[in-house]
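Q: Given only this backbone (194 positions), what sequence would you predict?
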C-alpha cells in the first residue's frame, strides 16, 4: 500500500471539499466567486487564470496574495532548495501577480505576510525573510502607485490550521502565542468595505 500516495490524495480531497464549502458560503452571502488553480510562480498559468477572470468579470481591480510554504530548518541546515521553496510562492508569486496585472486598474493590493517577518521565529529564517520582502514590496508599491491604490501588507500571527501543523502549534503554545482561529467569520466580525 502506498501510504504517501494515500495521504496526498486524502489531503487533495480535503482541500477540494474546503474549497467547495467556502464557495458555497460565499454564494449564500451573495458574493460571486470562482476557484481557479494555477502555479503562482508561472506567468503563463497566472495570465491564463486572469484572462478567464477578465472574460467573466472584466478588469482585475485588486490583488490578495496569500501564498506560502514552510520549510523550517535551523539556519545552519538551510539549503538553497529550501530557501527557493519558500521564496517561490511568496516573492516570485507576488512578482508574477504584479507583472500579470500591470495593465489592470489595480486599486487594492493586500499581502499576507507574517509576524515572523518582524519578530522572527526559530527555524523560520527563509520564511521570515520572504515575508519581510513582501513588506518592503508593499511599501515600494504604495509609494509608486500613490493614492489611487491602497496597498497593505498584513503581518498575521500564526493560524490554527493551514501551514501550522500540530508540532508547530505546540511550539507556539509553549511560547504563549495564541493561534488565530480560522473559523472566525471576518466578513461578519470586522467592518469590511465592499
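A: Predicted residues:
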Amino acid at each position: 500500500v502506498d501510504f504517501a500516495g494515500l495521504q496526498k490524495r486524502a489531503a487533495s480531497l480535503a482541500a477540494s471539499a474546503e474549497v467547495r464549502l467556502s464557495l458555497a458560503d460565499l454564494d449564500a452571502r451573495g458574493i460571486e466567486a470562482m476557484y481557479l488553480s494555477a502555479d503562482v510562480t508561472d506567468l503563463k498559468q497566472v495570465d491564463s487564470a486572469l484572462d478567464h477572470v477578465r472574460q467573466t468579470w472584466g478588469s482585475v481591480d485588486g490583488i490578495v496574495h496569500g501564498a506560502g510554504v514552510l520549510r523550517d530548518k535551523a539556519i545552519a541546515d538551510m539549503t538553497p532548495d529550501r530557501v527557493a521553496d519558500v521564496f517561490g510562492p511568496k516573492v516570485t508569486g507576488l512578482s508574477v501577480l504584479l507583472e500579470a496585472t500591470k495593465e489592470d486598474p489595480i486599486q487594492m493590493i493586500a499581502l499576507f505576510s507574517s509576524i515572523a517577518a518582524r519578530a522572527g521565529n526559530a527555524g523560520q529564517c527563509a520564511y521570515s525573510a520572504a515575508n519581510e520582502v513582501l513588506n518592503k514590496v508593499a511599501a515600494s508599491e504604495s509609494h509608486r502607485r500613490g493614492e489611487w491604490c491602497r496597498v497593505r501588507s498584513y503581518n498575521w500571527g500564526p493560524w490554527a490550521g493551514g501551514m501550522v501543523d500540530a508540532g508547530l502549534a505546540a511550539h507556539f503554545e509553549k511560547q504563549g502565542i495564541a493561534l488565530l482561529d480560522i473559523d472566525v467569520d471576518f466578513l461578519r466580525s470586522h467592518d469590511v468595505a465592499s
